[in-house]
Design a protein that fits this description.
With about 110 residues, chain A is mainly β. Chain A contains no helices and 11 strands. Helices cover about 0% and strands about 55% of the residues of chain B. The radius of gyration of chain B is 14 Å and the shape is globular. The interface between A and B is medium-sized, with 26 and 22 residues.
Chain lengths: ~110, ~110
Amino acid sequence: EAAVTQSPRNKVAVTGGKVTLSCNQTNNHNNMYWYRQDTGHGLRLIHYSYGAGSTEKGDIPDGYKASRPSQENFSLILELATPSQTSVYFCASGDKNTEVFFGKGTRLTVV
Amino acid sequence: TQTVSQSDAHVTVFEGDSVELRCNYSYGGSIYLSWYIQHHGHGLQFLLKYYSGNPVVQGVNGFEAEFSKSDSSFHLRKASVHWSDSAVYFCAVRSSSGSWQLIFGSGTQLTVMP
């Protein structure tokens, strides 16, 4: 069964610290996505990737970097975390004409 | 630029009622449309999709959606809702060529009263 696994599931970080959110997919999908979900905003696309070595900016990339070292793994990196980045983050994978599969989310709190 | 609009933030119905959740999009080329459901505290789960062919597509749990190019719409419907259908529903659009960005609407909270 298609699976997208996010780690950690919960994270508390300090302002100015570095945070790395990890995502692994066993679907062999080329495309992977990082979203954040906030009340009143729905899901907003941060970064996405077409395949290993590729990262593209989504709608709200400022303050975030992404890394796709392999087909299976796609990380979201906050070099200098800020309280405004407190949110729930979702990773997803998909391919042309397929449904997109989502992870269970990571709740990040920046204090 | 692709955009997705879900005009109703909240919809409340009674169990057994029919429901339609509205979704309108703007995009000039070929697109891929889908609906997702999110129960409280959980991730998103796929309901159904449309890419081409029959404009009425069937999904899981009795949901269906109808694509209309003239109205730029992809509304979700269910003939008889159950309390367990209470959730947030998201419409999403993705270009079928070029950029693979998947863009979501703001979601509609469906509440089914007993």
